[in-house]
């Protein structure tokens, strides 16, 4: 799967499919499972405390990735279930939907996982997630004060992210 | 994929389904209905007693939910109403297999022979 398609440094944001405040929450994890960012826009129900919630989310995604790699009808060679997959190795899922929410997921080759939880009728958010990753690169990675593996505290990043997410469906 | 792997995948799916309900931002979540991956889609149907039926198909295949509902009907007719079938055991009912294959084949023909 080709990750960096164009030659532009900052691709322009994809056109929003509908207006409205559709996003519930967003997580960003690094390859070790550290939650770098958690943003909440609309979450009426809190089942667990934040630490447990992050761990559960990371665990769910890890296992789902393992399951999709195993269930893949196309690839002949599959590892055993439960073996950690390298980013980009094997088939990976990009979204799942329940009756109350839709979770869109993207993993970069460096192991950064971006998760966006939205309304179930939301369309394909892969391009939006790529744009969010480019925002992350611009505002967080290129910040000389930021140390990788620590939670993101950049105001500029938060503002730009907030603005962008509110503008997509 | 052999029987052991199928069992592992099924039990993993069952737990993932339950965890996805826990992580819902809103009340009333009934678990994963559709999982979209790069090379396949996975549709899941949960019946009232909690039995889950899932089907793996090409990305973007339509009408999978109605197929799953039909398979559930076949399950109740040929498996549950079979007096020799033990609940929770692997299904080895010939009529169920025949009808299932027929349903999937007719579905495939209907979709391809548009």
TrEMBL record, chain A:
Keywords: Endoplasmic reticulum, ER-Golgi transport, Golgi apparatus, Transport. Its main location: endoplasmic reticulum. GO terms for biological process: endoplasmic reticulum to Golgi vesicle-mediated transport; meristem structural organization; pollen development. Belongs to the TRAPP small subunits family. BET5 subfamily. It holds the Pfam family Sybindin. The keyword Isomerase does not apply. InterPro entries: Longin-like_dom_sf, TRAPPC. It is found in: Endoplasmic reticulum; Golgi apparatus, cis-Golgi network. Part of the multisubunit transport protein particle (TRAPP) complex. This is Trafficking protein particle complex subunit. GO terms for cellular component: endoplasmic reticulum; Golgi apparatus; TRAPP complex. It comes from Arabidopsis thaliana.
UniProtKB/TrEMBL annotation, chain B:
Its main location: endoplasmic reticulum. Keywords: Endoplasmic reticulum, ER-Golgi transport, Golgi apparatus, Transport. It is found in: Endoplasmic reticulum; Golgi apparatus, cis-Golgi network; Golgi apparatus. GO terms for cellular component: endoplasmic reticulum; Golgi apparatus; TRAPP complex. Gene3D superfamilies: 3.30.450.70. GO terms for biological process: endoplasmic reticulum to Golgi vesicle-mediated transport. InterPro entries: Longin-like_dom_sf, TRAPPC. It comes from the Eukaryota. PANTHER family: TRAFFICKING PROTEIN PARTICLE COMPLEX SUBUNIT (PTHR23249), TRAFFICKING PROTEIN PARTICLE COMPLEX SUBUNIT 4 (PTHR23249:SF15). Part of the multisubunit transport protein particle (TRAPP) complex. Belongs to the TRAPP small subunits family. TRAPPC4 subfamily. This is Trafficking protein particle complex subunit. It comes from Arabidopsis arenosa. The lineage of its organism: Eukaryota, Viridiplantae, Streptophyta, Embryophyta, Tracheophyta.
């Amino acid at each position: 799967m080709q990750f960096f398609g164009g030659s532009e440094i900052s691709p322009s944001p994809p056109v929003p499919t509908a207006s409205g405040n559709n996003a519930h929450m967003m997580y960003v994890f690094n390859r070790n499972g550290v939650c770098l960012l958690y943003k909440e826009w609309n979450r009426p129900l809190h089942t667990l405390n934040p630490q447990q919630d992050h761990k559960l989310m990371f665990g769910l995604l890890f296992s789902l990735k393992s399951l999709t790699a195993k269930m893949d009808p196309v690839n002949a060679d599959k590892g055993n279930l439960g073996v950690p997959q390298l980013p980009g190795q094997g088939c990976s899922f990009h979204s799942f939907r329940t009756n109350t929410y839709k979770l869109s997921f993207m993993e970069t080759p460096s192991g950064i996982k971006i998760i966006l939880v939205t309304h179930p009728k939301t369309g394909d958010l892969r391009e939006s997630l790529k744009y969010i990753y480019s925002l992350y690169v611009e505002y967080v990675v290129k910040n000389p004060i930021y140390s990788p593996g620590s939670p993101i505290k950049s105001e500029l990043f938060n503002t730009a992210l907030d603005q962008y997410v509110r503008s997509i469906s | 994929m052999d029987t052991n792997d199928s069992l592992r995948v099924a039990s993993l799916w069952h737990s993932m389904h339950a965890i996805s309900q826990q992580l819902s931002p809103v009340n009333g979540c009934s678990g994963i209905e559709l999982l979209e991956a790069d090379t396949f889609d996975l549709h899941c149907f949960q019946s009232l007693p909690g039995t889950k039926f899932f089907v793996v198909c090409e990305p973007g295949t339509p009408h999978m939910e109605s197929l799953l509902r039909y398979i559930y009907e076949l399950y109740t007719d040929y498996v549950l109403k079979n007096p020799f079938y033990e609940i929770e055991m692997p299904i080895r009912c010939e009529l169920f297999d025949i009808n299932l294959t027929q349903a999937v084949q007719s579905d495939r023909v209907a979709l391809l022979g548009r």
